[in-house]
Amino acid sequence: MKFLKELLDPVMFVIYYPLMMVFTYGHAFVRVPDSYEWAGYTITNGIGTKSFEAFMASIFWPFYWSVQAWR
Questions:
Q1: pTM of the prediction?
Q2: pLDDT digits (tens, 9 = 90+) for 17-56
Q3: Where are the domains positioned within the chain?
Q4: How many CA atoms lie less than 13 Å away from 56 in the CB half-sphere?
Q5: How far apart are CA 32 and CA 9, in angstroms?
Q6: Is the Cβ–Cβ distance between 51 and 29 less than 8 Å?
Q7: Closest Cα to residue 20, out of 32, 12, 9?
Q8: CA atoms within 13 A on the CB side of 50
Q9: One-character DSSP codes across the chain
């Protein structure tokens, strides 16, 4: 139970949250498609769009990984 107590320490949340943000950013960035079809048009995602979407996913990483787990 000592491990669980240390894991739930508030200081550990401050350490782990930014680490998971970095990990999630990389995963989300490569998962954003380069282009997709919508209403007969091809929409291309540039590096700015991919970066923004990955950044938003990294901020809310618990929700992102919840969705990934349910896929």
A1: 0.74
A2: 889 999 999 999 999 888 889 899 998 988 999 999 999 9
A3: 26-62
A4: 6
A5: 34
A6: yes
A7: 12
A8: 16
A9: -HHHHHHT-HHHHHHHHHHHHHHHHHHHHHHS-SEEEETTEEEE--HHHHHHHHHHHHHTHHHHHHHHHH-
